[in-house]
Amino acid sequence: MNTIEKFNQHVMNTYGRFPLVMENGSGRRCTDENGKSYIDFGSGIGTNSLGFCDEKWADAVCGQVRAIQHTSNYYYTKIQADFAEKLCTSTGYSKVFFGNSGAEANECAIKIARKYSFDKYGKGRHNIITLVNSFHGRTLTTLSATGQEVFHNYFFPFTEGFVNVIANDIDDLKEKLDDTVCAVMMEYVQGEGGVIALDKEFVDAVYTLCGERDILVIADEVQTGIGRTGSLLAGDLYGRKADITTLAKGLAGGVPIGACLTGEKCSTVLVPGTHGSTFGGNPIACAGGKAVLDRVTGEGFLDEVNAKADFIKSVLAEIDEAESVSGLGLMIGIKLKSKNAADVVKKALDRGLLLLTAKDKVRLLPPLTIEMNELEEGLNILKSILEE
Ligand SMILES: *Cc1c(COP(=O)(O)O)cnc(C)c1O
What separation in Å is there between the alpha carbon of 90 and the centre of ligand 1? Predict the structure, then answer.
């Protein structure tokens, strides 16, 4: 039995997969079992922020595997302390809770928001506003939070207490921000929803209105965080710092991790017995995260990310079939004039380029470390497909 047959016989069929077995990777390229090479413009959906098997990152991760791979959270580890310090100081947050995924990071944020409000105001102020077209994860509660009806099927009953507001609609926000609301949760750039950045005016209105009423702002930076948008957090680009920020995808360079960061206001809401995770803060994940943060916060790194983003946008501007380009930094959506995004992704695969889609757009999430010549090579392939 070949790998795909074996896989399909034993792994649940929850993804539309391409018939392709990836075997190894190095830098911004990976190779399938037939030896065919691909340039990576997808980063494993934004996770492999330093590309495949980055030398320093791999040393950090493997070194940690050989030193101590895990202890329960009943003990301390140095790497979790070092990583937490680096993460908090570089983002300007006071405290972090570590989990293992974006959904878990958001679950933690939701629990903190509800408990903050319960502790201070008692019952009834538990609703959380999320945006239409958002994506917050696949657990039952984060599915409830996700503002897309297609996700609200089969698994009834869903967690109560989420109210959707239309993104960028300040009037809708005002109408729904009543005294049952404890938090507003949003992605600065809706990723899965089609790479759509929020308007500055809307983000300003969220912060102003929430600030007046002690309603918390939760920024879901699971996809936008840690350099993806050209600044460490996308909130920096809006001049805003949420009460709670969640991170996951690119944070540890491809090792499973989730992080929920809190400022002063919420950093003592969770106490022993109110939250936990067996694997949360796992030393291997922390070692990967520390290696990523050391690199991304290094001198000039984010300037290069922005230069690369500008280059991509300048190339796309010359392609007639690319009707418009959205997103921030190296999180890019391409709306096509007449071609189908999924077809483009398939053709690119044949020609050795890994792309993603987001709704009806082609989505680019290249590794932050991608080099100009690699970008050029990949964009040439994309251009040739779009101009056919
Ligand atoms: C991917 C994503 C999630 C879910 O992360 P998982 O690690 O798959 O649980 C949540 N929020 C946003 C914005 C995401 O892009």
Answer: 22
Atom 5 of ligand 1, nearest CA residue: 102
pLDDT digits (tens, 9 = 90+) for 14-54: 999 999 999 999 999 999 999 999 999 999 999 999 999 99
Name the residue with the closest Cα to ligand 1, atom 15: 223
| Nearest residue (CA) to ligand 1, atom 10 | 136
pLDDT 10s digits, 87-108: 999 999 999 999 999 999 999 9
Ligand 1 close to Cβ of residue 223 (< 6 A): yes
Measured distance CA(292)–CA(49) in Å, rounded: 8
Pick the closest to residue 84 from 283, 302, 297 (CA basis).
Answer: 283
Longest CA–CA span in the chain (Å) reads 63
Distance in Å, CA 380 to ligand 1 centroid = 30
**136 within ligand 1 shell (Cβ under 6 A):** yes
Q: Give dist(CA 153, CA 146) in Å, integer.
A: 12
Instruction: Find, among 114, 112, 251, 242, the residue nearest to 188 by Cα.
Output: 242
Q: How far is the centre of ligand 1, averaged over its atoms, from the C-alpha of 103 (Å)?
A: 6
Counting other chains too, the contacts that 21-26 makes at CB distance below 8 Å and 24 or more residues apart are 24/52, 24/53, 25/51, 25/52, 25/53, 26/51, 26/52, 26/53
Smallest CA separation from ligand 1 atom 11, residue = 136
**Ligand 1 contact via 207 beta carbon (within 6 Å):** no
**Identity of the amino acid at 166:** I
Q: What is the pLDDT of residues 230-284, one digit of tens each?
A: 999 999 999 999 999 999 999 999 999 999 999 999 999 999 999 999 999 999 9
